[in-house]
Structure prediction request, 305 residues.
Amino acid sequence: MTLTEWFEDKRKVQALNVHKPDYPTSDPSLGLWVQCDNCEAMLFVRYLKENLRVCEDCGYHLEMNSTERIESLIDDGTWSPLDENMLPYDILGFVDQQSYSERLEETQERTGLTDAVQTGIGKLNNYPVALAVMDFDFMGGSMGSVVGEKLTRLIEYATNYKLPLIIVCASGGARMQEGTLSLMQMAKISSALHVHQVKNKLLYIAVLTNPTTGGVTASFGMLGDIIISEPRAYIAFAGKRVIEQTLHEELPEGFQLAESLLEHGLLDFILPRILLKGGICELLDYYSLAAWRKHKLECPTIHCD
Prediction:
């Protein structure tokens, strides 16, 4: 029996016992191996983490949580989080298959996060930056009122201290459980970015990862002075199936992947994950040398809430 067949048999056993609450199911994140979503190769978890969760066989970029991304971008010992104790609230009393408040509590316990974004300041190759990283593992990275508020506060902080801003996007869009409260975050964040970019002439770099869709793509995801994507990231507003059903046409292969968007001028770069920090550092090199800049990039001392 091959290792792949062994994993397949294990999944079948778990599927047969899915309705038995006392059956001890295992957490695959605690195992030694994980399967590539693209080529289905079995990858040793320790080596996969060292390789920034990029498949060594096919180069596919697997899902990466927000803490791992912060560690891959920010210099050791320089990260200072902002607004990390801000909590979402079920103001609408929303219930579908489960109440929103119960869903939030379970997701917070599973991920160790308060909501779908981490924000803060730190140094990237000694350059001070304001950084936000969305986490798809928290309710699909959906943008609720807390995500919008944390991003807006970070942008305003970066504006006040003249810091370059980086937002790493990974989201399914606006959070339906918060209704219009989630949709208004698009305008709120975009307004803060207008002040940061246009009125203060400060840099904003958007990094789009797989997936970046819905209201995030329709607002701050596409407003960067520089827009970078990871390879084969799915970037869209409406999904492919929705568009095909609306237009009654079959869309071409690779539609809405990063490579297609780059070809049509919607992106500036596609950078593999292992080159991302170095690529952003080069951009900051050019930015710091801009003739119009009056102030040296300095990292402020912050007091977290």
